[in-house]
């Protein structure tokens, strides 16, 4: 599968991304689109340090993203110290690649800055208690992180998002010394991918399942999901990962359990950290 990305890299990448369903025809290609279409999560990194200035490049790329009302309600904590990375890895689900990566970024929803500015300006900051402010911070943080991810991959680096940052959110806040009204939403491991452990492009749902023209239409949803079940199963079989349940069975089981490795406590942690959810 990975050997197919040769003569027409963009077309081959899209065929891999939509394995089992009709891929869109790439009508335009450029380095940015190719980087996007070839995205893979990297969980194996070389011990090589990152080139000087990499961190600043990634954060400047993140800051170049759009931001709602120019509020810029996010911040990032860069963790490179091995001891702190090991502690963070333990809190984030004991994922070894976090320790292996030379850089771990924690992207944070940050309303602390606006609270401080409100105090400096002798203003009450009433809007900070609104749930939309937390949503805004979450959206801004996610947009910024994706810019950083794309920048990293364009530089030949690999990344892996870490939702496990929410497994033990309160303890991670303590480890990172996050102030009131600030919380780590997710992490991002960054490093040089191990060429001996590269992965193939993982399939996604059919385009027609997530794209609705003019109005919502889920009349083919079951067909789309079953098609995706088959495509993802073929992907796993190709990689000799036999015995996996279908995607639909997996997500239904995940939703049925209710427990989310500690993330079900997020609402309480948000309230304790001073985020208004009114």
From TrEMBL:
Q: Which Gene3D superfamilies match?
A: NADH Oxidase
Short name of any one Pfam family annotated for the protein: Nitroreductase
Which keywords belong to this entry?
A: Flavoprotein, FMN, Oxidoreductase
Q: Does the keyword Cytoplasm apply?
A: no
Check the record and name the InterPro entries matching this protein: Flavin_OxRdtase_Frp, Nitroreductase, Nitroreductase-like
Residues covered by the Nitroreductase domain: 39-188
SUPFAM superfamilies in UniProt: FMN-dependent nitroreductase-like
Gene Ontology terms, MF aspect: oxidoreductase activity
Say which family it is in: Belongs to the flavin oxidoreductase frp family.
Q: Could you identify this protein by its name?
A: Nitroreductase-like protein
- Please name the source species: Aspergillus pseudonomiae
């Amino acid at each position: 599968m990975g050997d197919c990305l040769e003569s027409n890299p963009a077309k081959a990448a899209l065929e891999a991304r939509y394995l089992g369903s009709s891929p869109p025809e790439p009508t335009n290609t450029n380095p940015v689109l190719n980087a996007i279409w070839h995205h893979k999560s990297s969980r194996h990194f070389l011990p090589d340090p990152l080139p000087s200035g990499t961190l600043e490049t990634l954060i400047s790329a993140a800051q170049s993203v759009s931001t709602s009302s120019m509020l810029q309600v996010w911040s990032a904590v860069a963790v490179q110290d091995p001891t702190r990375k090991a502690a963070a890895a333990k809190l984030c689900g004991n994922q070894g690649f976090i320790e292996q990566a030379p850089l771990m970024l924690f992207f944070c929803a940050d309303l602390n800055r606006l609270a401080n500015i409100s105090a400096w300006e002798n203003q009450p900051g009433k809007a900070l208690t609104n749930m939309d402010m937390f949503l805004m911070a979450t959206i801004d943080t996610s947009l910024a992180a994706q810019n950083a991810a794309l920048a990293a991959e364009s530089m030949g680096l690999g990344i892996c998002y870490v939702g496990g940052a929410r497994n033990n959110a309160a303890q991670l806040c303590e480890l990172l010394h996050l102030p009131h009204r600030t919380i780590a939403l997710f992490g991002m491991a960054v490093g040089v991918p191990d060429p001996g452990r590269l992965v193939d492009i993982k399939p996604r749902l059919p385009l027609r399942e997530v794209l609705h023209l003019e109005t919502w239409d889920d009349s083919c949803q079951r067909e789309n999901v079953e098609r995706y079940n088959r495509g993802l199963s073929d992907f796993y079989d190709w990689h000799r990962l036999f015995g996996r349940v279908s995607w639909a069975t997996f997500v239904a089981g995940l939703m049925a359990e209710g427990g989310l490795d500690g993330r079900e406590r997020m609402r309480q942690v948000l309230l304790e950290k001073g985020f208004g959810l009114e």
